[in-house]
Amino acid sequence: MGVSIGIAWTLLNTFVLEPLIVGITGVSLDLSAFGGIKGNVKSFTIWLTFTWTLAAFGEEIAFRGYFLRRSIDLLGESKADRALSLILNSLCFGFGHLYQGISGFIDACIFAAVMGLLFFVSARNLWLPIIAHGVDDTIAFTALFLGL
To answer: Is residue 120 within 8 Å of 82, Cβ to Cβ?
Structure first.
């Protein structure tokens, strides 16, 4: 299920959300931090390693597994409390991606909200968002490697 969601998210994000965000902001996502990956097997391998360790596992454990759970503990379990926790969590995640510009920030906030929703619908099991996150990033880095 995580693989399917990761693929579906990548398609939705690539062909619908990112163009919409760029249309609204007038600014493309700044992916210059990953400029050396195109055609570079060593760089691609390093980024894939980082993707699964720091992004998929690390970010999901930190943002959904820890921060989202702690904010729910602090704010409460009502639907409104969980929604506020999810919004705050998504904004924090987005700020961590400001190096991608305003469009990257917005995109990351939406992505974090989706990963948070996956966390909730999976009865707070982190495996679903970890796998979906890793698959999405793997596809993105593969596209960058291939120059797409």
So the answer is: yes
Where do the domains of the chain lie? 2-14+45-145
Q: Residues near 111 by Cβ (< 8 Å), separated by ≥ 6?
A: 9, 13, 93, 136
At residue 97, the 3 state secondary structure works out as coil
Given a contact cutoff of 8 angstroms between Cβ atoms, the answer to whether 20 and 12 are in contact is no
Rg from Cα positions in the chain: 15
pTM exceeds 0.90 for this model: yes
Is residue 56 within 8 Å of 137, Cβ to Cβ?
Answer: yes
For 82-136, how does the pLDDT look when each residue is reduced to its tens digit (9 = 90+)? 999 999 999 999 999 999 999 999 999 999 999 999 999 999 999 999 999 999 9
| 85, two tokens | 């926790």
